[in-house]
């Protein structure tokens, strides 16, 4: 019996990281809205600013700056700024180079903050990116991002 070749350690960690993000988004979708608590206006601005700053770092191909907005779970899973940038380029091309972005109001659920961003890619296809964030020592950090096609609907 032949077994498939083993994934390199970094790829296996990334795959495990992605599976965790999928479960987190599924849990978010099923969580009752009654558990949502509003953010202060200052926190809403700071959350949006964090995502905007990371998108600007991607646009400038500034891997260390983009990686600086990543939470410890992302840093541990991907290891280096270069590895992080390569993963975003390959797995999240619309996040790496969106043609346009529109931010929706951030939401909180069970202590976790989510920032949804509608994006268009270079081909004009619509996507919805849902960022999860946590408060860090100096502000907000991005714990993950899930991107889904947003065909013909507004979030």
Ordered list of secondary-structure elements with their pairings:
Layout: H1 9-30, H2 41-59, H3 63-68, H4 72-78, H5 81-91, H6 93-96, E1 100-103, E2 107-109, E3 112-120, E4 126-136, E5 139-149
Antiparallel strand pairs: 1-3, 2-3, 3-4, 4-5
Explain what the structure shows.
- There is one protein chain.
- This protein has 155 residues and is of the alpha+beta class.
- It has one domain: Nuclear Transport Factor 2, Chain: A.
- 45% of the residues lie in helices and 25% in strands.
- Strands 1, 2, 3, 4 and 5 form a five-stranded antiparallel β-sheet that branches.
- A hairpin with a 5-residue loop joins strand 3 and strand 4.
Over all CA atoms, what is the radius of gyration?
A: 16 Å
Strand content: 15-25%
Instruction: Please identify, by name, the CATH architecture.
Output: Roll
The secondary-structure element order is HHHHHHEEEEE
The low-confidence parts are 18-35
CATH topology: Nuclear Transport Factor 2, Chain: A
Number of helices: 6
What is the count of β-strands?
5
Q: Output the structural class.
A: alpha+beta
Q: Sheet with the most strands?
A: 5 strands, antiparallel
Question: What gross morphology would you assign?
Answer: globular
How far do the termini sit from each other?
47 Å
Measured as a percent range, the helix fraction is 40-55%
Domain module count: 1
| Average pLDDT number | 83
Name of the top-level CATH class: Alpha Beta
